[in-house]
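Entry for the shared binder. Reason: the reviewer on the internal report wants the predicted structure included alongside the sequence.
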Amino acid sequence: MSEFLRSYLTVGIFALAAVALVGATLGLARLLRPSQPTTQKRLAYESGVDPVGEQWAQSQIRYYIFAMLFVIFDIEAVFLFPWATRLERYGTFGLVEMLVFLGILLLGLLFAWRKGVLRWV
């Protein structure tokens, strides 16, 4: 067997050992733990507040859109860091490109603001 395949075999053996160890630990915990289910234990629990009404409730879509906008602008901000660290190397061309990039981001933010997505109600 070649050295290349032997290294993969070593990784495979360790992966199988890890899966077996996790499975054995979970199985042993299932056998040893006390199991006394009651209706009180099966109730939905949320931050110390007693559940009232149905367990499933629909949230407004604006919260998801607000979260998506945050993620999008957060990820876009990551592109500013490499540019800022190498600003001298990029020169005027890099500055113009970043201004175009920031302008597109600003247009997206203005669009979301005009649509009323940024209102937290």
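Summary line for the report: Residues 58-121 form a domain with the Methane Monooxygenase Hydroxylase; Chain G, domain 1 fold (CATH 1.20.58.1610).
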